[in-house]
Fold:
Amino acid sequence: MPLEFYTRLIYYAYCNTYRRSSLLSHPNENAAQVSELIRALRSLLPPESVLVDAEDLRPFECDGLSAYRQLPMVVVLPETIAQVQSIMRLCHERRVPVVARGAGTGLSGGALPLADGVLLSLAKFKNILNIDPHNAMAIVQPGVRNLAISEAAAAHGLYYAPDPSSQIACTIGGNVAENSGGVHCLKYGLTVHNILRLKVVTMEGELLTIGAETLDSPGYDLLALMTGSEGMLGVIVEVTVKLLAKPERAQVVLAAFDDVVKAGEAVGAIISAGIIPAGLEMMDRLAIQAAEDFVHAGYPRNAEAILLCELDGTNAEVSEYIMAMRGILTASGATEVRTAVDEAERQLFWKGRKSAFPAVGRISPDYYCMDGTIPRRQLPHVLRRIGELSKEYELPVANVFHAGDGNLHPLILFDANKEGELHRTEEFGQRILALCVEVGGTITGEHGVGIEKIDQMCVQFGSAELTQFHAVKTAFDPSGLLNPGKAVPTLHRCAEFGAIHVHQGQLSHPELERF
Amino acid sequence: MIDLDLGTALQQQVLDAFQNETPLSIYGGGSKAFLGNASHGQSFDVSKHRGIVEYDPRELVLTARSGTTLKEIAATLVEANQMLAFEPPHFGEGATLGGTIACGLSGPRRPYSGSARDFVLGCQILNGRGERLRFGGQVMKNVAGYDVSRLMAGAHGTLGILLEISLKVLPRPAASITVTRECSPVEAIAGMSGLLSKPIPVDGACYHGDRCYVRISGSAQAVREARNKISGDVLPDADAFWQALREQQLPFFHHRSTLYRVVVKPATPPLHIEGTWLLDWGGVQRWLYSDEDLAAIRHRVELAGGHVTVFRGGKQSEDIFQPLPASLMAIHQRLKASFDPNHIFNRGRLYTGL
Structure:
């Protein structure tokens, strides 16, 4: 991608709400202050745990949203909670902003570093501290990979339910920060439904225990507030997760349709029949073809849409529901209904779905992944509108959809090297998200706001809600030094962005000047 | 009763209270007024702000005004063969949705399908400045902004007045049976916590009067299959039993003394606190009538990693809810101030100073 693309995005990232810290306010004093800070950090950590050279900082310059890049001032890699506390105390004292980072697989730039900030990597917190099969829970450090928890629990017949597509690499600390979902959330919930307790270090360096090793705890539900807070309220240093019994059997049915509307209606029919599938995914023609060409999952290439419906539970239960499901799909006009013949085919059906993003990456120089959620009944309308917008912007779109819970991932195909395409893509993406809000949905179902969708927050919320969000942050982080500039836009930013949430015909930020 | 949107009128009343710094004591059906510390303030009735605003069974989402009764919601859901899966206790005819979410109470299904807060998808509130705010939405997955709607669950009305709530609802299981057998508390705890690692569709487990009760729900086949894996006799009229447990109407609850709610890890062995016990939530939520000193009870439960609420019949001088560490209390106070700067909502109901 051309350099100016990055420059522009970094400019966006930078022109956000972030209050410049005192370190950069007087350039002449800057160098001396930075080296003093690094000296102080080195007194807290072993030398190899404080990185300052550009080539050492490079791997941390972005997360999964690689279009936004910024080298941090310094990277620290603590390995004890006490070290995290002393780093936070030091940064708080010196008014240095801190950005926490897990595996860096996030898709919204939530872990994008700051040029004059400390990047706090939790990569060394990778131990599973306890698996307690009697109470069906596990205590893990934040840098433990999502999948590693289920692997460790498997010996006891247990697993950790949320399974984001990046589960091989993403870590539980980041999952909590983003409230990650996955393909099984309709039945098993998001991260917020599957954790019990957090240990969190505040910007002031104080260690808090939020939640309990049991099902509830006294006081406000800070556990819910902390989950999905994108590193804005505290640094997660320990997570207690709930474990579930592994289902006896899982089975997947693939149904093909000659019309996406029929596929959407089939989803409603399944739910109406009282069946809650473990996973319920939809792909449209372009996504099907890309995935099929890539992994040869056995998808029908000529279908307009396919549904993948997974059922899990006891042996008898799955058999019973598979029969019911086949009936419903056929009655809904499926042109083909296929049950995976064995575990290998089941895995293959899923492999096609889980590789949909890289598969689309093969057929287009660049793609931009959106993450809106809509009420399911709006699917035909939203897909039709996306189709119209696709023609208007002359950019193809592949649709991948967590159909069970209404989470839509349109992938806009573009070529950043072609004059004007990036700009058209961004504008197209914004219109898709605005459409999601318009039909009663949200701008982000599971990828988070981060830096990427900060402007779209102005579309979804009015100034009173945004002000309340800022007040919530201040309650945890009065100095505003934790991950500043992410997740919640300032009212001024919204006014500059221009596309402001209009509620009941009233402009949401009438108190602000327009630019 | 008629559906009525009193949002604007309620907003005006809160604005007045904000300006005059008048404390308000929020009131719905009054069915849970016994819970929490006494809150002195002008009575603020939300019960007439009522009605189901939106419900489409295919979306698994119901949106209703806070004064809507649980009874009406349950009746509406049952027509589409759906339910509130956290099985909320009513504790009275007039129980409202708002009060249920504000108190954050869940019934016997809680460990297996989730709590009241787990099913909250979005809400509309009035904060202490009289601003009408919307958080979350009507969709299952939504990570835009902090999860303020779930924060409202269990906040006992101290952060805002709930006007409208959207909840995830679920299909009712096709079949359900309850298996019961006589056993000791130790056996019951081992048995109930042991079920957590078995692929059996349990959705209720309790120990009451020397007997363990396990409810299995799901497809007809699944229930038949699971029945053979659990020893004991099938309980006739099981729905009445679970309802009586949920509503605290079993003979166990006919005591006159103080009722404590003890919450611990499921496999926690019987606690050596003198009194009579009933174990719900598969051993997690334990009801206790005891004459022992509250401080002594709390001390022993804390050692087991749990906490204690004085649920019914507490003294006004006691801490009804488990006291918080100072660092957490400071955050609670700042959060409270951010939503309700003049401290007008349910002053002191949860903790002194909130």
